[in-house]
Predict the 3D structure of the following.
Amino acid sequence: FYPSFQLPGEERTSQVTFRDLYGHRTCVNRDDFWWASGPKTFDIDTMMSNLKFLGEKCEFRSKFIYNNLMYVAGSHIIEHLSNKTWDDLMMEHIIEPLRMTQTKTSFSLANAENSPLIT
């Protein structure tokens, strides 16, 4: 998927799917410290290469273990594969087809146009 993307264990890394990432079936320990550290210190490439150090909470695909970092990883992989930003993909495939003309995908766009924000 992505060159630096690694989960704990080679088997988990090689077999993971988007359904696993977005369905919280990776069973990787969560780490909310990255969120608490704020946007100035948050680096997506560092996060992607350090996921392997989070450890395993349970056997792969055996339980629902909520982990926000898997959403970040999945979204970043999709950006990498599609050569489009998450914002552009959401606009093209969800927001525009549903004619959600006042909905934006970033704080800067929402603030500039005083519109609702999706996350």
Q: What stands out?
A: The helical segments are 10-15, 18-22, 33-36, 44-50, 68-82, 86-95, 107-113.
